[in-house]
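Justification of computing resources. Each target in the renewal requires a structure prediction run like the one illustrated here; the chain below, 171 residues long, is used simply to show the kind of job we budget for.
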Amino acid sequence: MSISIVRFEPHHLHGFEAMLDDPDVVRYTPMPSPVPEGFGPAWLGRYESGRADGTREAFAIVEGVEFLGIAVAPAINERAREAELGYMVAPWGRRRGAATAALLQLTRWAFDDLGALRAYLRINVGNEASRGVAARCGYTYEGTLRSTWFKDDLRVDTEVWSRLPSDPDPA
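Resulting structure tokens:
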């Protein structure tokens, strides 16, 4: 079976909530730690509202029916024709090419369906795996934002990577 992204629906919440227990998800993403009661449905509600008004979108990364993670556009700016993209892969989905497959599909969605002229990623500088995914997917490192707010009282350096529709497709 192949890895694909599908619209995130309520039946994906169980896998999503299980993924939030992973130390790497806690370390490298803005997901809260500890996860508050009812976080999953509230998170999905925000993405469903964003889906309705065109400001954000969420997909599940799946292989067949197995949930492997999420691929998201947490910030879509229609006027500027750009989208921030992101991805998280559950521990059981790692080392299978899920993040790379998902980001390639998410990027294609941003360019083809949204008409984005720029897609960008914000990656914690310590997240070497995610930096590798960005590079494999044809993204260009633009620079590092120093001491950006992350969550709680934590500030981290964050790399910005981008891709344009005119950039060559990765081999």
